[in-house]
Amino acid sequence: LGAGKVFVSSCLVLVSEEMEGSSVPKRFEQLHDVFFDWCQKKKQRPYIKRLSQETIKWMQTTEFPSGAWSKGSTTTCLLKFIIDFCKERENSLRGKILQKCYLAAVEIDSFFSKLFKEGIWIHGSKALEISAHGFKFLKLNGRIAYQAFQMGRPLFPFMPNLHRLHEVFFLMVDQVKLAGFCISPLIWMCQMEEDYIGKPSRISRRVSCRRACQRTIQRSLLATYAHLRDAQIIK
Predict the structure, then answer these.
(1) Contact by Cβ (8 Å): 155, 64
(2) What is the rounded distance in angstroms from the CA atom of residue 223 to the CA atom of residue 175?
(3) If I label 80, which of 43, 62, 69, 115 is the partner at 20 to 30 A Cα–Cα?
(4) H or E stretch including 123?
(5) CA distances from 39 to 18, 46, 82 (A)
């Protein structure tokens, strides 16, 4: 989430510069309209109400944008918007740093898209294909960060999570070399746990504060029982 959020935020700064407007706020107003029109057309739910300088934590051009949202799905939605936006303007972006951002976005999107289509055990050739997208993203991201540094622009900072991503890509390749297949890195993800904990959290805000713990547990168990019964897991 951290690495993706920072990458997407920096990309949005560059995307905003493709908008018309005499000032940064005006360009972001147009970017807001373009983005939410795209969401409506593509039937996407970004889980943000506005796309502005505040959204990407970029109130001053001397600051590194870092993103103010907390959902990974928002990062994914914004990434796909950036890809579609750049794809439509691919010819006009030639030679610009945004073109490299587009290529990097396509690689990391391909990595996760293909990974989610696989099972727990990934065949060697497929694992190498998927991990190659990840390595290409890291290489392009490094080049983009260096180019931004040469331009004197505070964009694309190196996050610790980039090292973690490299470790994931490397382990996939290493396991293929050792065994001819690899275990999907997705087995270590915590999306289901994060989604589940949001359910009782929501319930806890709708019970009496005097018996909050007891009522939250009771209502959570009742809701869990209802879902398991509807799924015919229990009778």
Answers:
(1) yes
(2) 41
(3) 62
(4) strand 121-123
(5) 19, 7, 12
